[in-house]
TrEMBL record:
Organism domain of life: Bacteria
Family the entry assigns: Belongs to the class-III pyridoxal-phosphate-dependent aminotransferase family.
Organism: Ideonella alba
Xref: InterPro entries: Aminotrans_3 (IPR005814), PyrdxlP-dep_Trfase (IPR015424), PyrdxlP-dep_Trfase_major (IPR015421), PyrdxlP-dep_Trfase_small (IPR015422)
NCBIfam families per the UniProt record, alphabetical: PRK07481.1 (NF005683)
GO molecular function: pyridoxal phosphate binding; transaminase activity
Stored SUPFAM superfamilies: PLP-dependent transferases (SSF53383)
The keyword Transferase is annotated on this UniProt entry: yes
Keyword vocabulary terms for this entry: Aminotransferase, Pyridoxal phosphate, Transferase
Keyword Ubl conjugation: no
UniProt name for this protein: Aminotransferase class III-fold pyridoxal phosphate-dependent enzyme
Pfam families (UniProt xref): Aminotran_3 (PF00202)
Length: 446
């Protein structure tokens, strides 16, 4: 097995030659917050299936729901004229869960990139249904991440994810993220929120408001390095979008289903989006599933359409796959039974509090930021000047190797070490995670 590792399987976001030169770690088993590699080495899973294994590994209830569905109806389509029991149950439950948001309908797909694509298409279609056929542009944030399909890639902030695939969707523009640690404006969060909101409004006005379909952003940015906006930013964004008739799309692929210590990220900011992108935690990573949730304003435009343009031409053979739907329904039950969101808030606060002391003990830790059970640790070459860690530095990888050896899986993304453990993680496991991480930074810093 080890001989074949990295030979035929090209990994997302990795150079095929790099995968050959440094074969990936092979994970063989998972249980709760823990995973074992092929050599039997046990590690706490600080990566959590890339923000998705929210219930931890081998959750019994989800497993039983999947097996029961396999024994009843392993597959059928929910496509045009046919549906199945679990598709109806899941759509009903999800809409119920999102009643504070006023969600009316949901379109299922197979993952986060699909959910984003659905949101972008439905936003354009909404304006067409209302007779505003020129509203086709999208605005997003420079550090935002929205998946790998052509629409999502076009609104991605980081050009590393885009440039090999250009030309992309025309009419996509990026504005500054309210990122306290790195911005050319100010160290005052309130002022930064004002400035970044104003930059968004100026971009809308510059483009011509009646050409802009939607603004898309993550309530807390994940892949961009875990960037939490100031509390007043999203309320300001909502106001601006309303003023100019622009839809607000919340990409909750990471933040949805409890990651931040709230069930949905928009709840952190007391703001409603018009469309939500959901995936990952929706099925706790057990089976691929994505969803685009549609609020009342957008749903009404479709329901009252008489032009014939209102058919949703976004759906897949496997939309609302019965096994994925069964896994999601069991996940929702477990979220309640295990008080997963409350746990994420409680142990998340413990994690945040302890790791925020890291810059005091380690000279190459510049910033520790996050909320709930999402944390980004940014490494720098100099704390005072905040000089970024160069891409060629091996320090981030050395910290990750030290943690691995000591029994902790972490993820490195550029200069950032990113943590997104299962939301069911215990306080004791959080303490273990912090101890290992501190020792690993000490070791590399020594
Ligand atoms: N949106 C966000 C905010 C994400 O973080 C991701 C994936 N990390 C996606 C979309 C794409 O999701 P997927 O990988 O399931 O296609």
């Amino acid at each position: 097995l080890k001989q074949h590792n990295g030979r035929h399987l090209w990994h997302p976001m990795a150079h095929p030659q790099a995968i050959r030169d440094t074969p990936p770690d092979i994970i063989a088993r998972g249980e709760g917050s823990w995973v074992w590699d092929i050599d039997g080495h046990k590690m706490l899973d600080g990566v959590g299936g890339l923000w998705s294994a929210n219930l931890g590994h081998s959750n019994r209830a989800v497993r039983d729901a999947i097996v029961a569905q396999m024994d009843t109806l392993p597959f059928y389509n929910a496509f045009r004229g046919t549906t199945h029991v679990k598709a109806i149950e899941l759509s009903t439950r999800l809409v119920e869960m999102m009643q504070p948001e006023g969600v009316q309908a949901v379109v299922f797909s197979n993952g986060g990139s699909d959910a984003v694509e659905g949101a972008l298409k439905i936003a354009r279609q909404f304006h067409k249904l209302r007779g505003q056929k020129d509203r086709s542009k999208f605005i997003s944030l420079r550090q935002g991440y929205h998946g790998v399909h052509f629409g999502g890639m076009s609104v991605n902030g980081n050009s590393n994810f885009r440039r090999a695939y250009e030309p992309l969707l025309p009419g996509c523009f990026h504005v500054d993220t309210p990122w306290l640690y790195r911005n050319p404006f100010t160290d005052d969060p309130e002022r930064l929120s004002e400035i970044c909101a104003e930059l968004l409004e100026r971009e809308i006005v510059f483009q011509g408001p009646d050409t802009v379909a939607a603004f898309i952003a993550e309530p807390v940015q994940g892949a961009g390095g875990v960037i939490v906006p100031p509390a007043s930013y999203w309320p300001r964004v909502r106001e601006i979008c309303d003023r100019h008739g622009v839809l607000l799309i919340a990409d909750e692929v990471v933040t949805g289903f409890g990651r931040t210590g709230e069930l949905f990220g928009t709840r952190l900011w007391g703001v409603n989006a018009d469309i939500w992108c959901l995936a990952k935690g929706i099925s706790s990573g057990y089976v691929p599933l994505g969803a685009t949730a549609i609020g009342a304003k957008v749903a009404d435009a479709f329901l009252s359409d008489t032009s014939g343009l209102g058919a949703v031409s976004h759906g897949y053979t496997y939309s609302a796959h019965p096994v994925a739907a069964a896994a999601a329904l069991a996940t929702f039950d477990e979220l309640v039974r295990l008080d997963v969101v409350g746990n994420a808030a409680r142990v998340g606060a413990r994690l945040q509090e302890r790791l925020r002391r890291l810059p005091q003990r380690c000279a190459f830790v510049g910033d520790v930021r996050g909320i709930g059970l999402m944390i980004g640790i940014e490494m720098v070459t100099d704390q005072a000047s905040r000089a970024p860690m160069p891409r060629t530095s091996d320090i981030p990888a050395r910290v990750a190797r030290a943690a691995y050896r000591r029994g902790l899986m972490v993820r490195i993304s550029g200069p950032n070490l990113i943590l997104s453990p299962p939301l069911t993680i215990s306080a004791e496991e959080i303490d273990f995670l912090c101890e290992v991480l501190e020792a690993s930074f000490d070791e590399v810093g020594a």
